[in-house]
Amino acid sequence: MYVLFTVLASLLFLPVLAQHFFPYLIPDALYIVRIIGNAVKMSRYQRKKPFYTLLEYFLDQVKKKPDKPFIVFEGRTYTYLDADRESNRVARALQARARLEEGDTVALFMGNEPSYVFMWLALGKLGCTAALLNYNIRSKSLMHCFSCCDARALVLSQELKDAVKEILPALREQNVKVLVLAEQSDTEGIESFQDKINQASDDPLSTALRSNITAKSAAVYIYTSGTTGRRSLPKAAMISQERVWVASVILSNAGVTSQDVIYVNLPLYHASGLFIGVTCAIERGITIVLRRKFSASQFWDDCRRHNVTVIQYIGEIMRYLCNTPKKDNDRDHKVRLAVGNGIRADVWKEFLHRFGDIKIRELYAATEGNIGFMNMSGKPGSVGRMIYLHKKLFPYALIKYDAEKQEPVRNSEGLCLEVSKGETGLLVAKISSRSPFNGYARNPQQTKEKQLQDVFQKGDLYYNTGDLMRIDEDNFFYFQDRVGDTFRWKGENVATTEVAEILLMVDYIEEATVYGVKVAGFEGRTGMAAIKIKEGKQFDPVDAFSHVVNYLPEYALPRFIRIQNSLDVTSTYKQIKMKLVDEGFNPVTIEDPLYFLNGQKKSYVPMTAEIYSAIESGDIKL
């Protein structure tokens, strides 16, 4: 009896002892169990003939819970059945007006609204692929993004009609069907589409329309600037049907249940918005509270009004919420889980202190990448933890990287070297059938540039994430920086070569190099440009302001301009940016003329010590 009592007592205290001596064992084990469970489930779906896509799963959810709210948007609720019927109408209207066939691509140029989700579902029902265009892009970038996915049609929101008018002649040359979500259109070449949807039948469509879809078929194209910095325009990452399934279990891995309600305010053209916000909601069978754009002042009121339990974020969102005026009801909400990426450790702690016991699941992933992590332990600042079994299933490593040469360090045998704990290295992940890299649409060169050969043995192949990471003694990963010429600001990747091309359109700018600089209190880096003025010309600060504002989205604007007599280059004529990045924008230490983008004066203004101090102290908001 005594022995039995001792054994039972030991078992009772086993979790406590495990937590004390192995503090990360339970969250690690829980994470791995969820990953394996979801992998088994997806493997079962892949064996079905035809391939069981997430769309088919959505249709099964409709049968199980037809009356459950699927999307709540601006005072209106759409059930799972409503979404099914509405997407049937859209699919039939698309079929009639655009003459689509299985395998065709349709570009979506829209803001956040339920119609975006209905369009995506409709294209899936037709066996077609959606290309998700960033609604901030214009002119050359917009036409490039449309063309590189070989889309047959373009569907746009009414408010984006003017942007499409700029490229309409080029679209008409390619015989592209352009459809605007409006009851009528008076622009030749842009056809009204909402009236066609309203008139269409909501009867289910035949599965024969998508009978040839496989796990490897393209499900969606999502645009990314990438990290190599060698090209100026966005790349269309091809996301396969099986990859959509992988992305759809992120919330499941984080611990979301079918009873949760998720708040989505990130753009649906973004991987975070579409995958974490929509596909994960479908996989869990939960309700989406959708908002057109993020609003710090309305965030918590929305969460309270709709009983939101799960929020998604980028680091900037959390900081914006922490910067709002404190209120007595800051902790009066039902949010229990926050899933996203990019939150600084100090903001993490401040957020929890102010808004209560919310489990933060910071993750790491890339749109086109083949590796991801999630911090299940709640350690502030970390994007996840190295777990032995996870690494065996999905091999990856941190390798030594030469920032000056912008390439991995290799030994005498031409192989890469792993970094030690505490040392920053480039994250690479092995490309295999279990961890594929699908590359970019119609762009084999850039696809090849993201692949590293002969990493640890001759003939192996790894995906180059372009991200510098560090791992600590407890095996936690910390994101450090992005290599190459791309930097991140306000949750968006900014390709410096694209910004430089816009600057070089100005007739008095001879050379331009663009880079990101750190600003106190902000995640990521904001844009700065070093330029050389043509001989006999002068810098026009008002004209420069007008030019960049007209051609670039807000997050890509160069906040600072530095005028130099010449721009330094290497012996191979590559622009040297590291020194410029290190020097920043302090007028006290920089002798060159410096300018600051002033939105109120609609001009670049001379950078002064006073302006610099106000930016560093947070008195001037960027």
Automatic annotation (TrEMBL):
Gene Ontology BP term (one): long-chain fatty acid import into cell
Subcellular location: Cell membrane
Organism the protein comes from: Scleropages formosus
Catalytic activity: a long-chain fatty acid + ATP + CoA = a long-chain fatty acyl-CoA + AMP + diphosphate; tetracosanoate + ATP + CoA = tetracosanoyl-CoA + AMP + diphosphate; a very long-chain fatty acid + ATP + CoA = a very long-chain fatty acyl-CoA + AMP + diphosphate
GO molecular function: long-chain fatty acid transmembrane transporter activity; long-chain fatty acid-CoA ligase activity; nucleotide binding
Annotated signal sequence range: 1-18
Assigned GO CC terms: endoplasmic reticulum membrane; plasma membrane
Protein's UniProt name: long-chain-fatty-acid--CoA ligase
Main location: membrane
Keyword Transmembrane helix in annotation: yes
Membrane topology: Multi-pass membrane protein
Domain of life, source organism: Eukaryota
Chloroplast listed as a keyword: no
